[in-house]
User: Which sequence fits this backbone?
């Protein structure tokens, strides 16, 4: 498949922005576990944030394909910085698809303008891949929901202005897929607390937090979508966001591959350039082939999604293989760097640490395989 002229321009602009704005500061952000949010604001001004949001809500009216292309280029330059910038709209996909007109007009435009940051509180200390096991409760009292519970590993938890919260709303419902709803909660509400999680292995520039909700009150109108349909809305949401993660894995892999090629063309061993050894060439060839295969998968899945034909199996294939490719290529690239890859003076060390999360969040690789198998077994060939 071939990109349009506009898509080529978007990729080029994203790469140039990343190279010019955060490449030289990536190591600093990783070491400090902090990010300069003025870069997020600048990315918004350049039109890189929330490209999938419709024009009537302040967005650019582009597709998830274009958003994924930007994601790949940002992660190609630095995964932590890419995540810190592009995750600031995480959850907007849910509002745009299932929110009321009032919710869309209120909460989406500030994200595009760089005036607000959001996130989605799903995971809990004892509930990760099995989202039906989440226990954070939302009890309806008159015209309010009262929320109690804890969330873990929440992106933007300490810096978000509002968060979507996946809550149990009917514990007595026999169908576990009808017990939950999604509710928007502003983070300045009484009873909300966020504690930053430090010491992460990778994407350290991105804020991650543990959240607690202690009798947090929000109006019933903050319900996103239908009451009791939170699980189904979440699965639809993942069909969009998992493509972003696939692009993350491809971008990280591409960046790692480029570092490896640059390194072996400069280093000598046994009287030869490393790049002259056939064994090294074979390693590079396999790395590059996997990157191209992973890219083709997510491109096709994103294209179909934007055409209104989402394929859950294909999306999960793209996410799983994109993550696996990121881990594989980063590992091989570090191996080619030898001892130099094991010290922080070389970017590949950071990419190696950043890679693993892509196989974990938004559905582990085991979850993706389960989705693929389930979807295929339902089909008639």
Assistant:
């Amino acid at each position: 498949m071939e990109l349009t002229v506009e898509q080529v321009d978007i990729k080029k602009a994203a790469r140039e922005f990343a190279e010019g704005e955060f490449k030289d500061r990536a190591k600093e952000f990783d070491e400090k576990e902090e990010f300069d949010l003025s870069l997020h604001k600048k990315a918004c001004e350049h039109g890189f944030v929330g490209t999938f949001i419709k024009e009537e809500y302040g967005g650019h009216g582009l597709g998830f394909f274009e958003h994924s292309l930007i994601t790949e280029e940002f992660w190609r330059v630095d995964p932590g910085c890419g995540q810190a910038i592009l995750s600031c709209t995480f959850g907007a996909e849910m509002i745009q698809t299932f929110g009321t007109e009032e919710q869309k007009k209120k909460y989406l435009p500030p994200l595009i303008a760089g005036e607000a940051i959001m996130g989605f509180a799903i995971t809990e200390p004892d509930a990760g891949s099995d989202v039906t096991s989440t226990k954070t409760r939302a009890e309806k009292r008159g015209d309010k929901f009262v929320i109690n519970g804890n969330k873990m590993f929440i992106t933007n938890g300490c810096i978000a202005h509002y968060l979507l919260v996946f809550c149990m709303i009917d514990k007595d419902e026999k169908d576990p897929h009808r017990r939950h709803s999604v509710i928007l909660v502003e983070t300045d509400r009484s009873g909300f607390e966020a504690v930053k999680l430090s010491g992460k292995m990778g994407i350290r520039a991105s804020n991650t937090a543990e959240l607690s909700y202690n009798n947090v009150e929000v109006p019933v109108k903050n319900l996103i979508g239908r009451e009791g349909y939170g699980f189904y809305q979440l699965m639809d949401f993942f069909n969009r966001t998992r493509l972003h993660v696939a692009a993350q894995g491809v971008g990280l892999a591409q960046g790692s591959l480029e570092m490896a090629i640059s390194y072996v063309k400069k280093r000598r061993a046994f009287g030869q350039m490393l790049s002259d050894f056939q064994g090294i060439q074979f390693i590079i060839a396999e790395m590059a082939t996997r990157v191209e295969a992973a890219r083709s998968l997510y491109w096709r899945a994103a294209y179909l999604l934007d055409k209104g034909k989402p394929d859950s199996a294909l999306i999960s294939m793209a996410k799983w293989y994109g993550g696996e490719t990121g881990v594989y290529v980063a590992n091989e690239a570090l191996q080619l760097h030898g001892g130099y890859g094991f010290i922080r003076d070389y970017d590949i060390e950071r990419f190696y640490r950043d890679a693993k999360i892509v196989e974990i969040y938004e559905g582990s690789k085991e979850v993706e395989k389960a989705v693929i198998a389930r979807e295929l077994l339902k089909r008639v060939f």
